[in-house]
Amino acid sequence: MSARVLVVDDILPNVKLLEAKLTSEYYDVLTATNGKEALEKVAAQSPDLVLLDVMMPGMDGFEVCTKIKQNPALAHIPVVMVTALTDAEDKVRGLESGADDFLSKPINDTALMARVRSLVRLKMALDEWRVRENTANQLGVVEKQSNVMMESADNARVLVVEDKNFEQRKIEETLQRDQDIVTITENGAKTMELVAAQEFDVLIVSLNLAGEDGLRLCSHLKSNERTRSIPIVMIGGEEDMPRIAHGLEIGAHDYILRPVDRNELLARVRTQVRRKRFQERLRSTYEISLSMALTDSLTGLYNRRYLEVHLEKLLSKNQESKKSLAVLLIDIDHFKHVNDKYGHAVGDEVLKIFSQRLLGNLRSFDLVARLGGEEFAVILPDVSEQRAWMVGERLRTSISDVPFVVTGHPEGISITTSIGAALIDHNQHTKHEVLERADKCLYEAKKGGRNAVVFEGKGKLNPDDFKEAQRQFIS
Amino acid sequence: MSARVLVVDDILPNVKLLEAKLTSEYYDVLTATNGKEALEKVAAQSPDLVLLDVMMPGMDGFEVCTKIKQNPALAHIPVVMVTALTDAEDKVRGLESGADDFLSKPINDTALMARVRSLVRLKMALDEWRVRENTANQLGVVEKQSNVMMESADNARVLVVEDKNFEQRKIEETLQRDQDIVTITENGAKTMELVAAQEFDVLIVSLNLAGEDGLRLCSHLKSNERTRSIPIVMIGGEEDMPRIAHGLEIGAHDYILRPVDRNELLARVRTQVRRKRFQERLRSTYEISLSMALTDSLTGLYNRRYLEVHLEKLLSKNQESKKSLAVLLIDIDHFKHVNDKYGHAVGDEVLKIFSQRLLGNLRSFDLVARLGGEEFAVILPDVSEQRAWMVGERLRTSISDVPFVVTGHPEGISITTSIGAALIDHNQHTKHEVLERADKCLYEAKKGGRNAVVFEGKGKLNPDDFKEAQRQFIS
Known about the structure:
2 copies of one chain form a homodimer.
Chain A: E1 4-8, H1 12-24, E2 28-32, H2 35-45, E3 49-53, H3 61-70, E4 79-83, H4 88-96, E5 101-104, H5 109-138, E6 157-161, H6 165-176, E7 181-185, H7 188-197, E8 202-206, H8 214-223, E9 232-236, H9 241-250, E10 254-257, H10 262-292, H11 304-321, E11 325-332, H12 335-342, H13 344-360, E12 367-372, E13 375-380, H14 385-400, E14 404-406, E15 409-413, E16 417-424, H15 431-447, E17 453-455, E18 459-460, H16 463-474
Parallel strand pairs in A: 1-2, 1-3, 3-4, 4-5, 6-7, 6-8, 8-9, 9-10, 16-17
Antiparallel strand pairs in A: 11-13, 11-16, 12-13, 14-15, 17-18
Helix pairs in contact in A: 2-3, 4-10, 5-9, 5-10, 6-10, 8-9, 12-13, 14-16
């Protein structure tokens, strides 16, 4: 995939060299020759990747990188530090300032292109999600804009695929400094078993396993929908560079060269864990916004929209299965009076307790929704008339028999409810028709003095009849 | 990116050859030697790509492809037909049965790998969205599972970048058979102007432009966030194959070889347009589910959740700007009586008309929400007490002065409303506090006989005072 790359170096021939290499591979190249110009171009032209020289007069590369990564609007842009330094300490300093990778001068073309392609691909996958999160943010679904650098990298679950004892111990000891949970395995078969059974935040794969090709394992992991999104960090020697480049093509996220520097390992693992957690959070924002579309924020019950969609599905299921379902419309008696007398805060508490009592007296596959205000609906799929009757009566008494304990009223306040119910047979019915039928019964229950269940065609239920019915039903 | 590829051919050596080529590039390979086995493996193992031989005994490749593409659960899997046939008619038949591309035997390795990589990349981008649409579907946000083959490919907006007159005319005439809207341009600079100003569904780019490199243009288009998602079909000669392969790497979606076959052109353009429209619809599903989380389904007004999130934002803005805002709580008088007397359907009509009248009497940046049942809230940012008072009174009379014309009551029914209002200064306030203050006034308005506005600290407004205030305000 083509992309816009910003090349930053204070030495013009270096800029020109990188520009030529990238242009010949059909990247769009921007350039800057100092830190200030780099920051301006990052902000104004939103490149897909920044290749950033470390040693520059004035603002150096570390400072530029830190400024990019601390800005929530820019932090998602990958930064590769380009440096003559091979000192591991500088590498770690760069990674901790948020750089996504390091390239050493003189730049190896294979490594450069593999890196650029891989980071651009990762960025584009994240971009889709970031755009969505911005929308969710503007609409108030999520509280504030997130940023990959804000993610915690602690307590990561790391799976290490390495068959050399010495290397295993070194990696394990290093990662445990971050309280990471480290699992070690020696081959691909065991790895596939482990990833099928457990969740991991990052995989570290040796490219020098004795009996098999580590790249093949990476390819299996990336071909499997379940494991595709787990980041892979490859470990190999300098002589493995062509295979490492291939691994990045396949979809591995990063690599580290032997001998493994402990701090570099920690820094690279942290970067991957942060990125994965960031991506997971962006995804969950979507799930949250979906569930918000279908639930009532005060009580957590489904809302009217959900009820209507699912009532239609349940009605057509009912037609197929030749069974019956019951629709109950439930209204809290004199709820306006509760609000007026005790205030809205207490009114809200009553609605919450009321919802919990409904839920507590129903089966897991019964559907409960708050239609708005003090009105609720319950759908009982696959029930007999007898059973629907019993459930209605049980719901009524669960409300009336125990006072509602609310703030400022430890003695509890007395609440009752009226219920209208209709049994719907397996013929064709519209959702409006069945809700209307239950509503007529609810009206009867209200008119007849409240705190009552009215069943269609039966009139107001007599609690004594109910006890008799229950006795017969159980016997 | 690695992926799982299913190779289907009735001749075992052909299968083995493709398997070896793909395995050496670290793809996970599945194989099948007849149509039935192929369909079973597609369903059971969900590959990321199918390479499908056309000529097989029993069920041929066309039939297998049609069966995959007609199954909503499988249609997203890209299919490449592999064939000895070079007859354009067969190509078109394959593309019309839903195949994403054709490869001719003997298979050119460059073309094979470029194709596989490009189609796998497209699939993975779509997969993210498909998974989310499934969630939205299960929750009832969208009605039914969608399918790329169900998208219309008609009336596509096509931009053709070609500088040869003869080719321009041929492409234009061909596409106009599908009622496509065709724009023709001759160079990259004009192309960039056009895509900045207009929307296109697909771009057709010649790789044989006289004065410039068509691939460079593709790269610009793919580096630009605005144009990145528009599919590109390259046109070139047999001798351009290496550049075409590079173009697919860059992100172009498809290509067609000269001399351009009219039916093949139509079929390939249709495929791209369908895919783009499918992707756009998957995205809009997300936007819809977000807006569902924030609006009331009956009236289209914002819901309580949105009001609460934004009231908080408006309160802190108010503190900064040192201005005042007004909160109005609005309740329809005796609404239960409307429902009982006229039925719920008429009650819903009243709620809708009521909402429209509120909206019609407010500024575009005022916030109106339905809190539930017959209760509404209005926030007026940046207002004086005088102005808030006028708005409240205007809302009251807009309801009471004109009867509500509803089904079965052409003469209209009389509706009134009670309004409680509070002016919130620039000191610190919580949303609960300000809603409570307005609610107390609403209670006063109800107690005082309804059809009234009560302003905090002022008591019930006298319409005559209002007229006087309005006179003073205007003068």
